[in-house]
Fold:
Amino acid sequence: MFYLFMKRVAAPIGRAVYRPKVEGLANVPAKGPVILASNHLAFVDNIVIPMVLPRRVNFLAKAEYFQVPGLKGVLMRAFFGGLGHIPVQRGHGRAARAALDMAEEVLARGGAFAIYPEGTRSLDGRLYRGHAGVARIALATGAPVVPVALIGTDQVQPSGRGLPRIRPITVRFGEPLDFSRYDGMAASTMIHRTVTDEIMYAILELSGQEYVDSYRPHPKAA
Structure:
């Protein structure tokens, strides 16, 4: 129910207010499994991608968002659930595998799964080296990967700011990437790195960001 509200009411309002410039929307399949691999500049990215796409998009989200008690918890669960977020536990050895399994389940159902290969938000606007999870998912499922560039969302919601501001937003969807040439090599870490780097280069071409060939430190370690 809340998903329908977000899609049919909140999303049109958001598009009317922010008037995002959307390029390459036809590159996203209207149905069937697809991985949306995007850069990540602000929390509002989680809202912008579903806002501009006609189909449902699933993300992974910290399970803590779904475990808040009381009325606030009810509202948070409705909000994140309405955005298509799937709760996943973090902080234990099996978390990464569980996250990949959930992504594969979404794609096996013919769904759209969005992922930020950098792993966390870029606080300086640069594009950091991608983690190989996106490659593992793509190789395990055979789903096409559509690179996505978000531009301007860091101005809508700069780091540390709660309420978003009205600023220009551009969302660019690149041409789908097909990695079927690596069939049978899904276990190779070298292939994981090759596929991930190809995806990150495609995002870089769309976003025009400066590239940093190192992983973005987790905020707690920054």
